[in-house]
Amino acid sequence: MEFRDLGDLEKAAGSYRLEVVRIGFALLFFAGIMLYVSIYAKGIEQSYMLVIAAMIGGYMAMNIGANDVANNVGPAVGSKALTMTGAIIIAAVFEAAGALVAGGDVVSTIKNGIIDPSAITDPDTFVWLMMAALLAGALWLNLATFVGAPVSTTHSIVGGVLGAGIAAGGMEVARWNVVGAIAASWVISPLLGGIIAATILFVIKKTVYYQDDMMAAAKKVVPILLAAMAWAFITYLVLKGLKKIWKFDFTGAAFIGLAGAAIVYAIVKPLIKKAALSLSNDQKGVNSLFTVPLIFAAALLSFAHGANDVANAVGPLAAISDSLMTHGISQKAAIPLWVMMVGAIGISLGLMLYGPKLIKTVGSEITELNKTRAFCVAMAAAVTVIIASQLGLPVSSTHIAVGGIFGVGFLREYLKVSYASQLHLIAEQHSNEDKPKIEHFLRGFQKASVHEMDRMLKLVKGKNPEVELTKEEKKRLKHVYKEELVKRSSLLKIAAAWIITVPCSAFLAAFIFFAIRGMMVA
User: Fold this and answer.
1) What phi and psi values does residue 325 have, to the nearest 5 degrees?
2) Can you give the residue ranges of every domain in the chain?
3) For the residues 75-98, what does the mean pLDDT come to?
């Protein structure tokens, strides 16, 4: 056996041991849930159903941590503002804090009004429906994580409730207008996120990166950008993350955000001025100014996600607990502390054990992210949710974040290709030159700053130009630019996963519901 084979064997053994450790921690978590709920549910009729549901809820929470949380910290990791370990710690702490501090006391038993609750009158059928929805959503998230596709937790749950609801009460139980609105969000969410992120990046390029003295421009523009980010995040937190504690309308939240933005501007302006003295006057120096804001953004997005989405994710578990306790079906169900703990701990554990795969996908496998681009994605996430909530548009935080990443990637692609196209169109008007000169010119053009590109284009326009490109070279260069900046395979894989999330989760839930009902009735 060669040494290389021994190295491969050791690597495989190490991977196997790591997987065993992961499974071990997950089993300990499930055992803890089973033990606690068995004691908690003692004396409750059909207590075993609550134990099973709680374990499924823990499984769902772990899958949320492995898949959904990546959107909050992925850009910061991809841009190297945070290490993977630092991102996991921050996300785990703030997700749990958001769920426990601001997660609320009650949750709607029928997520998003996707089905008519009056059509389900039997408490046992309702419990089976919720168990099927919860398990189907968890299984779909698990599969999506396995293939490396970030999908919406909310859509997974909605699909599960829809499928199990139709299986329990027929097609007329579904509220198809709500289903249509959710389907519209598949397009609305990524488009809004992408457009807003690309717009912010374009503004930064025009006002900072395209200036002769980047750092002088950054000292003026970056404090304004950070103040705008503070307004967006504070408003977002007040509207979405803290709504279960303090109820504010948009005007009140916006004024609180504005006050916070003014304070942030006053603090960061002298700090940036001081930091600029020791930074290089180039893109790398400007990029470093966004490091700390990205860390805060990751923490705040995680807190808001924990406060807003964890309760929704464990909603079916809360609904099952309420139904078994009251022997009825309620429109709103109280969320016991133990249910929220299952959600908070499960998300943190799932993130730590299985989250790195999706964090890498979001952070580096769609397009290359530096700190400036990651800042644009994070800010777009907050701004898009604010705009959508005021317009009454159903949006997904997952779709917004990933759409923002594609948005900045396609903007970069457009800007680079447009410069290359100008070069090709101008060069074709002049006489042919030998290939070494063309290649030398293109290498210089590709590495040049915007102002150097302009100078080189003027030289091509002038008399006796140095180079001319053929149509074949033009096509090849465009192809290289596009493949370098946005991975089409990632775009197709993620878009396909988004489109089939609700239908797949629905069909899976219907199958599970029939299986549960068959076992319980038999």
Assistant:
1) -75, -40
2) 41-414+485-521
3) 90
